[in-house]
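Hi C.,

You asked whether I'd gotten around to modeling the 538-residue construct. I have! Everything is below, sequence then structure, no commentary in between.
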Amino acid sequence: MAGLGRASATVAVGTMASRITGLIRNIVLTVAIGTVGARAADSFAVANQLPNSVFALISSGLLAGVIVPQIVKAVKTHDDRGSAFVSKLLTLGVLALLVVTAVAVVAAPLLVEIYAGKFTEEAKTLTLALAYWCLPQLLFYGLYALVGEVLNANRIFGPFAWSPIVNNVISISGFGVFIALFGTYKAATGWTAGMIALMGGTATLGIVVQAGILFLFWRRAGLHVRPDFHWRGIGLRHIGRLAGWTFLMVVAGQIAGAVQVNIVGAASGTDAAGATLQNAWLLFMLPFSVIVLSLGTPYYTRLSEHVAEGRTDAVTADLSSLTRTVGIFMVGVLAAMIVAAVPLARLFTTDPSEAVAFAWVLVAYLVALLPLSFQFGLQRTFYALKDTRTPFVYTLVQAAIVIATALTASALLGAGVLSREWLAVAIALGQSVANIVQFALAITLLRRKIGPLGLSGAFRGILRFLLAAIPAAVAGWGVFALFGGVDGWAVSERLLGFAGAALIGGTTLVVYAAILAVFRTPELTMAGRALRRFLPGR
């Protein structure tokens, strides 16, 4: 457990630092090209989302779901600690990434039409130009995910969590240079080749360096990797069978995401659209990344080990422990983010009215923060069991709901029932509904597969957390009202928005922790131990 705790702390601190620098990166980006009602921002959001979408799906599906269990098994059973196995997989992976990247670059006009079909012609032209600069990120995102998962499987968790910081520093510097040279831009017209190259090239350079850093840590893994094209005998048929389902998950997710981005493009240039959805999702995922991923990544390696040993009781115990630990943190964070939504939104917007529009999108995403957080453990349990078919089933259901809700929002917009200012909110809310259904289905299917999950105690604890969060949120909202609410100082400027969000959210969290302490909530001690791991010397 001590090793698991140290690994969790390493991942959490690195992830926290990378997410904070990522937050700063996106704030600087919004200063450069705007957010709500900014066509240029929506164009860059689409162009940069093309490689990002594939990376997010690959890192949580194909690589994590298929490669890690195979490497863990190779490390335990092969005399060379899996070096030959990893060499073959990396060779195959790099070739596949090269092909996918080349195809994506050639198909860039089609991809832009799919994702940005409702943009103006000028905005489409800018999106395509930026896409040619951004799509090569696919190769380096893939390398980062592939090499990172190999290191994780060998219990080297730090580099994967820390290397994005360098990417963010490069992006912040590049976007800062853009502002210094060209000022701030909201329009989709007037962009020169130099502006496009600086904006797109900065984004891609950061990903190249982020991936390259991981190769410096091979020696720590004890691996001797070389190009190896002899793939016979490494179980490609078995891996392919597992990867086939995750590939279908990629397809389902891509289709759903494309429908969302395409439909919200109708509001680009006037109201919240693609850039707003992207930045609101960044804020939404910040606590998920810092808390859930930092705790869950080391747990996943241990889950894979327990599955390999046939210890189902240990697997369910791990799942229950992870759910409790995640729950006590995420419930408090959820309450804090809801009451501080408008000041948080002000970090990404140019005036209070835009902040309110942004905040509604963020709150719509936050509806599913808890289900999405708890589902992480469930999905990784399926992956540890080498079952990628079941996650595909419930992901397909989720994708269908995402598409259905997005199309419904589009139909309501066309009928005049829904105004364009609420289109992004409706799409974000549809995403949350889909995630909630997906979580419920995942629990049901995992229970059928391995029997009772032993989560009743964990969910009773979460109910206690929710009861404590209600008065905590009321206290936070009172502080927001005391500051003047939407018309107050906490929403007047970007920096003041940060200060206001910190005070409002901080008050909420203090009251939440105090209530849990008064009622002697047992999980509070466990949370305290987790927090102490991040102190100097720990």
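If it helps when you're writing up: The two ends are 14 Å apart (CA to CA).

Thanks,
B.
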